[in-house]
């Protein structure tokens, strides 16, 4: 305990301090104060004196002894619980079970190097799960030099952490490349501003789109904490999405996003997420999938946490500082096929309209393309024009980027590496795409991007776009998703729109929808989200706007960990859809 300039140590002061510890920290409990030694740090020339019968009156804590220690800034004493072993004090870290199987490996920092890590190698008490170690939050006071001090973050297993293996969701890959000696640049930045790295979370192999029951194969896929606990976790940042949605003791999860690898798990698990402007955050030290599309992916339960993270670690100056003056509402993708979801998306858009004091502008991208697209290009309908743009770029790079791994593994071990069926099919498709087909996809992408910026966004406005994302309907982890064709998804959809244009996109939890689970035989709730896209550099504005518009409307700006994203009995949620009546009283809407 830090005493400052106190002259007299009183029982209430100590009791209040211990109770504050217990209220603000999940590592410290009042059990620590039973038969404990109190170490009181003072700053004056003389130690403060205790009042009469000080220790005797500390009931119910029964502290056994009290030590006065003059504060020495060089020793960096931090308040909180410690273990006393001989003459040495050791920090207390709590072990949480990874009961969702979200982590590939859990870690602690190397004692000699904060940017290097040591595998924890510990299980839960019953031995069923990995254990995740978290330090006391009391060790991380507010610090202007470390604005994210003490925030706990997981890291997707395609980021390098020095001292650990990067598996990329494939055992052969981890075996071939072994222990890494570098830590990714973005993780190093997080450490510099005070974040605590907890370990590496699972992903679909090679950051692809595997979901149960078809995969991942090498590392058992994690469980989504939402609804009946048997919904698909989505990919590829599967561990990140499940962990941040399920573990209240975590603050942030790092993923990556190529064609939806962060956005899809965020939608399925009902958490906030940001796909940043392409190139805004460093990808150094992260295994590339498709460099033209790859970005860091950020997830949190609270938009305030996500906003603070980007303010601290994003570009020093936002490219778009003022609020938007136009909301595009693309009729290409509205209305959705789910009426309840559509009502929530409408309500979210109304909140934006009221906050910005503007009215949405409905637009048909396909019709606008037919009218204003470049000559020689617009003659092809937009859906067909974009059909293979994202697919060919994604598949070609997804295959060729791992040539060194395939060839090197075969040369070193005399056999081909194991590749899961989903990744193998993706590579087979990628190997068939010609350079000419790739070049045409790249050309069409540029034509489309130029047209969007000239004819849709324009220089006269600061534009945002509301789009649907995900489908809040049951997707059980024991049911294979519908088979798709070899042509892959068209880029004419709200998912690929931000990807191929390099635009920032925020996933906004907007409610939850009831359904009767085949597993639990009772009503459960699936999270529903909206997508909010902005111009390049509007990342921070999108987060700030989402937070402020929802807060002004009386809507929650954070979600709960566990089976429910929102409380079902929260009248504020039910009543905040602009006065709209609900067809189903169990439906929760913004």
From TrEMBL:
Residues 142-313 form the Amidase domain. It holds the Pfam family Amidase. InterPro entries: Amidase_dom, AS_sf. This is Amidase.
């Amino acid at each position: 305990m830090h005493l400052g300039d106190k002259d007299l140590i009183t029982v209430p002061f100590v009791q209040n301090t211990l109770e504050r510890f217990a209220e603000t920290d999940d590592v410290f409990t009042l059990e620590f104060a039973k038969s404990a030694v109190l170490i009181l740090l003072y700053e004056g020339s003389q130690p403060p004196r205790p009042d009469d019968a000080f220790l005797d009156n500390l009931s119910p804590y029964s502290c056994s002894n009290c030590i006065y220690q003059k504060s020495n800034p060089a020793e960096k004493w931090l308040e909180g619980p410690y273990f006393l072993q001989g003459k040495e004090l050791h920090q207390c870290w709590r072990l949480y079970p990874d009961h969702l199987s979200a982590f590939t490996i859990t870690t602690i920092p190397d004692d000699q190097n904060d940017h290097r890590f040591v595998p924890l190698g510990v299980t839960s008490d019953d031995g069923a799960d990995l254990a995740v170690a978290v330090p006391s939050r009391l060790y991380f006071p507010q610090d202007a030099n470390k604005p994210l001090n003490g925030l706990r973050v997981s890291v997707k297993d395609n980021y390098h952490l020095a001292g650990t293996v990067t598996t990329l969701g494939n055992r052969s890959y981890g075996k071939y490349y072994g222990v890494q000696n570098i830590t990714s640049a973005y993780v190093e930045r997080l450490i510099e501003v005070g974040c605590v790295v907890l370990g590496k979370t699972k992903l679909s192999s090679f950051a692809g789109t595997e979901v149960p029951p078809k995969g991942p194969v090498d590392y058992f896929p994690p469980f989504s904490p939402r609804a009946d606990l048997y919904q698909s976790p989505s990919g590829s940042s599967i561990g990140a999405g499940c962990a941040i949605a399920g573990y209240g003791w975590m603050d942030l999860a790092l993923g990556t996003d190529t064609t939806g690898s962060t956005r899809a798990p965020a939608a399925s698990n009902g958490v906030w997420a940001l796909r940043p402007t392409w190139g805004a955050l460093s990808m150094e030290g992260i295994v590339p999938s498709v460099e033209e599309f790859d970005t860091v992916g950020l997830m949190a339960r609270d938009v305030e946490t996500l906003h603070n993270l980007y303010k601290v670690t994003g570009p020093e100056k936002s490219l778009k500082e003022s609020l938007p003056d136009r909301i595009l509402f693309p009729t290409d993708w509205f209305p959705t096929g789910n009426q309840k979801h559509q009502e929530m998306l409408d309500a979210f858009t109304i909140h934006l309209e009221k906050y910005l004091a503007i009215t949405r502008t409905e637009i048909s991208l396909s019709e606008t393309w037919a009218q204003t697209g470049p000559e020689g290009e617009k003659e092809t309908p937009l859906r067909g024009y974009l059909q293979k743009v994202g697919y060919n770029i994604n598949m070609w790079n997804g295959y060729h980027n791992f040539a060194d791994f395939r060839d090197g593994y075969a040369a070193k071990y005399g056999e081909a590496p194991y590749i899961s069926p989903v990744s193998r099919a993706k590579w087979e498709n990628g190997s068939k795409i010609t350079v000419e087909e790739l070049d045409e996809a790249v050309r069409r992408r540029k034509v489309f991007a130029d047209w969007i910026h000239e004819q849709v966004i324009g220089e006269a406005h600061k534009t945002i776009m509301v789009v649907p994302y995900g489908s809040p309907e049951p997707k059980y982890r024991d049911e294979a998703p519908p088979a798709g064709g070899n042509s892959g998804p068209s880029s004419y959809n709200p998912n690929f729109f931000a990807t191929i244009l390099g635009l920032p996109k925020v996933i906004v939890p907007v409610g939850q929808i009831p359904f009767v689970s085949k597993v639990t035989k009772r009503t459960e709730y699936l999270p529903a989200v909206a997508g909010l896209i902005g111009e390049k550099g509007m990342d921070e504005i999108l987060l700030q706007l989402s937070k402020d518009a929802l807060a002004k409307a009386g809507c929650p700006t954070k979600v709960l960990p566990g089976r429910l994203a929102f409380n079902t009995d929260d009248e504020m949620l039910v009543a905040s859809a602009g006065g709209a009546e609900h067809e189903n009283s169990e439906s929760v809407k913004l």
